[in-house]
Design brief:
The chain is mainly beta. It contains 1 helix and 5 strands. It has a 5-stranded antiparallel beta sheet, with no helix packed on it.
């Protein structure tokens, strides 16, 4: 969950890659996945679709036990608001969801009024502001 991702866990991020235009997305889900490489598009094994992922810089070290790297993956499920505007998340958002406009490498992002189902607010327009996670 996004609330459980610490900025110390993502400080070696070099870039976020978006696979689709995030301008129309009120929120994306984010998770830290164990992946075999620092860079490249990861395999995706969830329902729904991957909308983005993080690339790590050369200073990122693999896990000593597994040899994998922890990288963020951004995704949506079939019942999320973009695909089902009147569904389960017509208002509110999943715990791991954040407004994609508040994300940048090494910053975990924030919930905003928009990500929670409200109108585009000053918090969504000002990335340093946002709702508590």
């Amino acid at each position: 969950m996004s609330a459980l991702i610490g900025e110390d866990e993502i400080l070696h991020e070099a870039e976020l890659i978006w696979l689709e235009d995030i301008a129309g997305l009120d929120y994306v889900r984010q998770s830290l996945d164990r992946l075999p490489t620092r860079r490249g598009k990861p395999a995706y094994h969830r329902d729904g679709r991957m909308v983005g992922y993080a690339l790590l810089g050369p200073q990122a070290k693999p896990s000593r036990s597994s040899g994998t790297f922890r990288r963020r993956v951004f995704w949506l499920l079939p019942h999320d608001r973009d695909a089902d505007p009147q569904g389960l998340y017509a208002t509110g958002a999943p715990a791991e969801a954040v407004d994609p406009r508040t994300l940048s490498p090494g910053r975990k992002g924030r919930k905003t009024e928009r990500s929670e189902g409200g109108p585009l607010s000053w918090a969504a327009r000002e990335p340093q502001n946002g709702l508590p996670l």
